[in-house]
Specification:
10 helices; rod-shaped; 50% helix; 445 residues
């Protein structure tokens, strides 16, 4: 009679009540009934300690341990039986393959398909908590993210901060360039006009003054010409009078001509007396003002360029500050989310793509610390199979062992731990593939 997995519901946590194994790797035959939450498998190297632990997980899922040569050298077959109280798991192994049976203890019916049923019960860290310790930093980060629920997406916040960091780097580069350019500019005088002086008006005024002065020179020359011409006329009149005596016959004509010349001279003299010439304009002052305006305009232009550059610098500084504030806000959100998260181990946290412990990268913690954290993470699994495996028990001191035993007892887990210990007084001692003593009490076959 079989029972489908979907019809059978596990009622409570599952631990090993009794382990029986024959011919598994270096194991000849063992029968272990755990007493307490901590099961220490001890003995010298090469006597089968690891094989005892492998037998448990070969029974549950061959994929989690090395199953390439599961049968002890010289034996024809091997078998494992796990009495887990509510269910009984039996696996038989021959050179041709393996068979698995799961029996519901209460009803005696078989649960099928057996491996599918077991795989659905197993957690990703249920077997060996040291698996977490052995992961690389990225894999540890991803594993912890699956265990711990956070209110924010750490990867998204980190990606946004990386993008803003790159943008801020570019902005800060612009800030430094603008600061250097600004430092190279002269500081304008406080009384310097804000706008450039119109030199074209001064140039027009200078041209008008030049034209005026040219007109003045022309008028002076014309006036002097009048005086010169008057003198010529007077000289001509005198010459004519001198010839009058000689030219009696022309006296009348000469007299008339002389009178006319006198009259003309009088008119010209009067015109000379009445002719007015305006004062010339000093163009040197206009030239000085024009040159000064050019120099001032250069300073005004530099001042305007400085103000523009100052504006660009302030804008760049604001952009950099805004990016810094955004990054700080995301970091605060990450810290607050991590602080609110129910982390399975005090001091455990998230860094930038890594797991941290007490503020330092998890990989930098001691071996014992990493193992303790890994055990706590494994115990946070929702798997009903509450079995943990620790291969490197010798890395744990007595305080760590006591802590793990206490954690297992409080949370209802069973820890199977392997240690090199040859006194025969601690845990289940394995000698030559068999149990030789339990807590110092010899075991006879």
């Amino acid at each position: 009679m079989t029972q489908d997995r979907q019809q059978y519901k596990v009622k409570g946590p599952l631990v090993i009540v009794e382990l029986t194994a024959e011919n598994i790797k270096k194991v000849k035959a063992v029968r272990i009934r755990p007493d307490g939450a901590m099961v220490q498998i001890t003995g010298a190297n090469g006597n089968g300690k690891t094989s005892v632990l492998d037998s448990i997980f070969l029974a549950l899922d061959q994929k989690v341990v090395d199953a390439s040569m599961p049968i002890r050298n010289g034996a024809q077959s091997a078998k494992i039986k796990l009495d887990m109280g509510e269910i009984i798991v039996e696996r038989r192994i021959t050179p041709k393959g393996t068979t698995l049976e799961i029996t519901a203890a209460e009803t005696g019916v078989l649960i099928k398909p057996p491996q599918t049923f077991l795989s659905a019960l197993l957690g990703s860290l249920s077997f060996d908590p040291t698996a977490f310790e052995r992961m690389d930093a990225k894999a540890q980060y991803e594993a912890l993210r699956k265990v711990v629920k956070l209110e924010v997406d750490l990867e998204l916040l980190s990606a946004q901060n990386e993008a803003d960091f790159a943008r801020r780097t570019d902005v800060n580069r612009d800030v430094k360039t603008l600061e250097a350019r600004l430092a190279a500019m002269p500081i304008p005088a406080p009384d310097l006009p804000a706008e450039p002086i119109d030199q074209s008006e001064l140039l027009d005024e200078m041209q008008a003054a030049t034209d005026h002065n040219q007109m003045v020179q022309t008028r002076i020359k014309e006036r002097d010409d009048l005086l010169l011409r008057a003198g010529l006329y007077q000289a001509q009149a005198a010459k004519l009078r001198e010839h009058a005596a000689l030219l009696r016959e022309q006296v009348a004509a000469q007299e008339r001509e002389a009178d006319e010349n006198d009259a003309q001279a009088k008119v010209l003299a009067e015109r000379h007396t009445k002719a007015s010439v305006p004062d010339p304009i000093d163009t040197a002052e206009l030239r000085r003002r024009y040159d000064n305006a050019g120099e001032a305009n250069q300073r005004i232009g530099a001042a305007k360029a400085r103000r523009v550059l100052q504006g660009e610098l302030q804008a760049a500084q604001k952009r950099a500050a805004a990016l810094t504030d955004a990054m700080a806000s995301r970091e605060t959100a990450k810290r607050e989310a991590i602080a609110k998260a129910e982390l399975p181990v005090p001091g455990l946290g998230f860094g930038e793509g890594i797991v941290t412990l007490n503020g330092i990268p998890f990989k930098q913690a001691s071996t014992a610390e990493r193992l303790r954290v890994s055990v706590a993470l494994a115990m946070s699994s929702k798997s009903p199979i509450r079995i943990l495996r620790i291969e490197h028990g010798n890395d744990l001191d007595e305080n760590s062992l006591a802590l793990i035993a206490k954690m297992a007892a409080e949370k209802g887990w069973q820890v199977w731990l392997e240690r090199v210990e040859q006194s025969g007084k601690v845990g289940v001692t394995i000698v030559d593939g068999e149990v030789s003593a339990v807590n110092g009490v010899p075991v006879t076959v």
